[in-house]
Amino acid sequence: MKAIEYLKYGLPDVLKLKEIEMPIPKSNEILIRIIATAVNSGDVRLRKADPFAVRLFFGLFKPKTNILGGVFSGKIEQIGSAVTLFKVGDEVFGHTDMSFGTYAEYKCLPENGSIALKPVTIIHNEAAVIPFGGITALHFIKKANITRGQRVLINGASGAVGTAAVQLAKHFGAIVTGVCSTSNIDLVKSIGADKVMDYTKEDFTKNGKTYDVIFDTVNKIVISESVKSLNVNGKLILSAAGISEMFHGLFVSMTSSRRIKVVTGVASHTADDINFLKVLIESGELKSVIDRTYSLEQMAEAHTYVEKGHKKGSVVITI
């Protein structure tokens, strides 16, 4: 099968198209023919080993996992002897968690992984981009217990996590302010934000307005300034935080006189979360936002574009 491998950390040109052996499913696994995947910020960080801490978990001198890609939409080609949840021919979408491997034509996954039947209302390209942003946003929204009537500000509202966070916060009844650049204002309004703030013209930390929750999806805020824009008992979500931001957040949570809580860490997920997103997609409450589409052979070009940090929603790879 065709796959994109990287054998060393570096620039996008370390991503090479190769012919490798097709995987064979174990008794509890399904073999998925990948029809679409996506390039996300996490893929870029792993490819570059930036921050350096990436190397501590994924290979000090070279990557231990040679095929990136954590999300997919596709069709089941084969099932293991013990599989009961799916059948051959099912169209599915989901998240591979830390096994990655969807920059390829086929991928084996345990049947009890973060997988669900693809929503019938959307095509594979649209389904593939939902799990990364959707799962990340859902994890932190649930962790922060966002509820009806709360005033929520989402920084980076036009990215993969941001567009999902806007829509999910609205689903849970929040009053949402999205922060983005001038060119993305109409997009963020179109997915349900009650108000959109142009960060090139207005700084939310200096306009005197306060919120119950501030959700930073892009790791581009100053924590000490942002917490001043939170109400008493407010919560600051740092979904893209590095190690230093996580420690800073822990310090704020422990010392804040206004009982501010910083929510951070790594998003976790199950099949129930993918199925939850599926229901919202089919009800029209959650929509995919796709910026560009590339072929598997154009993976290096796709990474180059994503690394610039200006994509709207997600970048799709068709296989």
Structural account:
It is a single chain. This protein has 319 residues and is α/β, with parallel strands linked by helices. The chain folds into two domains: 2-129 and 288-318, Medium-chain alcohol dehydrogenases, catalytic domain (Quinone Oxidoreductase, Chain A, domain 1), CATH 3.90.180; 132-263, NAD(P)-binding Rossmann-like Domain (Rossmann fold, 3-Layer(aba) Sandwich), CATH 3.40.50. Helices cover 28% and strands 27% of the residues. The chain is built from ten helices and 15 strands. It has helices spanning 41-48, 53-58, 124-128, 130-143, 160-171, 185-190, 223-226, 243-255, 271-283, 299-307, and strands at 2-5, 16-19, 29-39, 71-79, 91-95, 106-110, 114-117, 151-155, 175-180, 195-198, 211-216, 230-238, 261-263, 290-295, 314-318. Strands 3, 4, 5, 6, 7, 14 and 15 form a seven-stranded mixed sheet that branches. It has a six-stranded parallel sheet with strand order 10-9-8-11-12-13. The longest helix has 14 residues, at 130-143. The chain is globular and about 60 Å long. The relative contact order is 0.16.
